[in-house]
Amino acid sequence: MIALSIAGFDPSGGAGILADVKTFQALGVYPTAVITALTAQNVKHVGGVEPVDTDFVAKQIDLVMAEEDIQYAKTGMLYSGEMVEMVARKVNEYQLKLVVDPVLVAGSGGTLSRDDLARSIKKHLLPLAKLTTPNIHEAEVLTGLEIKNEEDAANVACELGKLCPTVVTGGHLNGRDIFYENSSNGNDINFIEGEIIKTSNTHGSGCTYSSAITAYMAMGISMVESLKKASHFTKKAIENGGHGTLNQMWRQNQL
Ligand code: PLP
To answer: pLDDT tens for residues 15-59?
Structure first.
């Protein structure tokens, strides 16, 4: 099994492409990784962002795809609308089954995106995606709607669900993830139980969650089952973390 992450680099290791690679590896999926931007940051703040040239990111994707039979991919930090449009072209070209984590800001609050990013993700990437995994803040920015409670979150999931299946992650609300899929036999909403975990080790939890979903889907597991398993995996990664970062290697220690 093999999967691709197209995302930014967080040198602290808790989030971004390192979190994605650790997650794929811990779940037994061979990781490939294309870097869209370097960041200078730790868990407390983002000190700078250096986007990689879009043509060079395209070249990374082309050369990885030329050698490996990759069907499942996820996106994390894409930074600009231009990057989103290029990635959308590649997803089409290689018929990738895509999970989109619409990363806009770091957990510390530092921005990881240009102003045109949310609009571009909605227009170009979500219509191609198998799933998107916004947290509450990202879901609000993507739809322009405010989320104060679980009902609001469900409405926003329905709104984004017009573009692709959507799970609004509940870590910032009450721990429950809300999944919406506009299925052919009616409109399905599934509430997936999550647990509130009282810790500060959540830097990179969105990256870990979306990578774990991608890994489970690459193994042939259904989407709803993948969501449940990924939620459990992320909870364990948070519980085993330290210093504000996650520890995705807990599974290996148990093997
Ligand atoms: N991608 C990169 C490169 C990051 O640095 C971060 C956060 O710092 C994220 C994504 C988003 O992280 P989270 O999973 O906490 O939303």
So the answer is: 999 999 999 999 999 999 999 999 999 988 999 999 999 999 999
Q: Whose CA is nearest to atom 5 of ligand 1?
A: 10
pTM score of the predicted model: 0.95
Sign of CA dihedral 113, 145, 157, 192: positive
Listed residue (129, 118, 121, 120) closest to 96, CA to CA: 129
Integer CA distances (angstroms), 115 to 38, 129, 137, 149, in order: 18, 21, 15, 26
Give the mutation target among 104, 199, 207, 245 for probing the ligand 1 site: most ligand atoms within 8 A of CB: 207
Is residue 154 within 8 Å of 180, Cβ to Cβ?
A: yes
C-alpha–C-alpha distance, residues 198 and 77, integer Å: 26
- Give the separation between CA 171 and CA 148, rounded to whole angstroms: 13
Give the contacts of 148 (CB within 8 A, at least 6 positions apart): none
Question: What is the distance between the alpha carbons of residues 126 and 117, in angstroms, rounded to a whole number?
Answer: 12
Tell me how far the alpha carbon of residue 1 lies from the centroid of ligand 1, in angstroms.
25
Write down the CATH number for the domain with range 2-246.
Answer: 3.40.1190.20
- CA distances for 211 relative to 33, 54, 145, 151, angstroms: 12, 23, 26, 27
Distance 26 CA to ligand 1 centre (A): 19
Cα(210) to ligand 1 centroid in Å equals 11
Domain ranges of the chain: 2-246
